[in-house]
């Protein structure tokens, strides 16, 4: 049996990059997976490739109505939800001095509010399933400084994970945060800060970016029953940067 046999999972931002990697591994390990994304073309193509174990749902993760839809469609297709991976995010570089409130609210909605909404709306379904695992993807910038907007939202994801873990433990719902370093994904390759990211490699003790699969292996562990006594914790995969 796979490590996620008979589990139902939602993965946001699942059409490409780390989300796609998580989805592929979850399906290999026996899960039924709803992948959500705003990129309909890539999301539908991935769902078609992975087969009947995967459902694609178009979602703006900052929309409350979209979250209600995602939970309802996932439950009606696969049953009560055991796993939520709040993976969707943007790495837009903002300036405290020059960015507008509109710029700031956009990154806040995608990186932070979406995580709250996902946790809020998945709880009733996880209660039906008599427990579950929520994995919130933060960043090493949720542990140390970086650009305004990105850093503060990733710190918030870390804090929300701890608060929710304490609140939801009595339901058998675990909540943990994952803090990747530099990952070789399309989001990184197309980032406005790609030159700075490339320069960071010299300061990584392992001297390379991570591949998405390396983060997916950690997410799989947290989603599975193998991590049954882990909740409210940060899990760092950064090649040694924070060491």
Automatic annotation (TrEMBL):
UniProt-recorded Gene Ontology molecular function terms: oxidoreductase activity
Keywords noted in UniProt: Oxidoreductase
TM regions (residue ranges): none
GO biological process: bile acid metabolic process
InterPro entries: NAD(P)-bd_dom_sf, SDR_fam
Superkingdom field: Bacteria
Homology family: Belongs to the short-chain dehydrogenases/reductases (SDR) family.
Alphabetized NCBIfam families for the sequence: PRK07231.1
Identification of the protein by name: 3-alpha-(Or 20-beta)-hydroxysteroid dehydrogenase
Organism name: Facklamia hominis CCUG 36813
Taxonomic placement: Bacteria, Bacillati, Bacillota, Bacilli, Lactobacillales
């Amino acid at each position: 049996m796979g490590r996620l046999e008979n589990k139902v999972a939602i993965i946001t931002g699942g059409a490409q990059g780390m989300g796609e990697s998580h989805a592929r591994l979850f399906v290999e390990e026996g899960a039924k997976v709803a992948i959500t994304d705003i990129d309909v073309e890539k999301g539908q193509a991935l769902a078609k490739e992975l087969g009947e174990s995967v459902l694609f749902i178009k979602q703006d993760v900052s929309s409350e109505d979209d979250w209600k839809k995602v939970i309802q469609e996932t439950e009606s297709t696969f049953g009560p939800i055991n796993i939520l991976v709040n993976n969707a995010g943007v790495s837009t570089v903002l300036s405290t001095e020059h960015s507008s409130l509109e710029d700031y609210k956009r990154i806040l909605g995608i990186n932070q509010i979406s995580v709250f909404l996902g946790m809020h709306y998945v709880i009733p379904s996880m209660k039906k399933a008599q427990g579950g695992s929520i994995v919130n993807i933060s960043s090493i910038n949720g542990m140390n400084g970086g650009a305004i907007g990105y850093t503060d939202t990733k710190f918030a994801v870390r804090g929300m994970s701890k608060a929710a873990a304490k609140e939801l433990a009595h339901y058998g719902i675990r909540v943990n945060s994952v803090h990747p370093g530099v990952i070789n994904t399309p989001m990184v390759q197309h980032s406005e800060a790609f030159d700075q990211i490339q320069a960071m490699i010299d300061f990584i003790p392992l001297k390379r970016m991570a591949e998405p699969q390396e983060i997916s292996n950690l997410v799989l562990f947290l989603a599975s029953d193998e991590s049954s006594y882990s909740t409210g914790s940060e899990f760092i995969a950064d090649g040694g940067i924070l060491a």
